[in-house]
Amino acid sequence: MYHERAAAVAGEIRKVIPLNREWRALEFGPGTGLLSLLLKDQLKEITLIDSSAGMVKVLNEKIAAEAVENLKVLHLDLEQEDHGDEKYDLIYNLMVLHHVSDVEKIIGKFRDMLNPGGYLAVADLCSEDGSFHGGGFTGHRGFNPETLAAMLVDRGFAGISHKTAYVIDRVMADGSRKQFEVFLMTASLPKPKAGAGSGVS
Fold first, then answer.
1. For 18, 82, 119, 153, which has the most beta carbons within 10 A of its beta carbon?
2. How far apart are the C-alpha atoms of 137 and 194, rounded to whole Å?
3. pTM
């Protein structure tokens, strides 16, 4: 299912965003790197940021084993730390945002890390009743895409669109089946208008 989901999201990203082999990209919370491995041939370089030292080790071993040259891994808790001055043309994540405590803060960080004209792609759960993770989960029960889109607008993004990218069909503890929609939302950071600003700084 994880491979199928990553492939579906990668396919939708390729349809909506004009990927460029000169672009530098960032994946936030890459897990085992499935999505970036699928997108690596359409991008110049991808930085994978993860807060888990164990996952960073797994990713580095996987990249070395597959002899991938344009993926690099960074151990960083982006929720609590800053990434410095590096800028990217594309930032994306898959099934990560609903684990983030302060979604507005992390979206602001994404904005600050993008080049003007750059793109953001978020793939995550649509709003659900809490049964996806079950009891004890402290994150978000998915997102209403319209609410998330408004949050992006408030932080300066434009050209926002979303669609269902994948449906998770899961057998629940009681034996019943339940479907959970995964949406892909894309947005861009507008370039400054000609003549805007105060000149060379």
1. 119
2. 47
3. 0.92
**Of 188, 151, 137, nearest to 18 (Cα)?**
188
Please, are residues 92 and 120 in contact by the beta-carbon 8 Å criterion? yes
Summarised one tens digit per residue, pLDDT across range 116-162 is: 999 999 999 999 999 999 888 999 999 999 999 999 999 999 999 99
Q: DSSP assignment of the chain, as one string?
A: -HHHHHHHHHHHHHHHS---TT-EEEEES-TTSHHHHHHGGGSSEEEEEES-HHHHHHHHHHHHHTT-SSEEEEE--TTTS---S--EEEEEEES-GGG-S-HHHHHHHHHHHEEEEEEEEEEEEBP--STTT-TT--S---B-HHHHHHHHHHTT-EEEEEEEEEEEEEE-TTS-EEEEEEEEEEEE-PPPPTT-SSS--
Residue burial 73-82, b: 16+ Cβ < 10 Å; e: rest = beebebeeee
End-to-end CA distance of the chain, in Å? 50
Which backbone phi and psi does 49 adopt, to 5 degrees?
-105, 125
pLDDT in tens, 11-33: 999 999 999 999 999 999 999 99
Domains, in order of start, for the chain: 2-188 (3.40.50.150)
**Which whole-number Å values give the CA distances from 30 to 51, 52, 92, 172, 184, in the listed order?**
10, 10, 9, 26, 16
**φ, ψ for residue 4, nearest 5 deg:** -65, -45
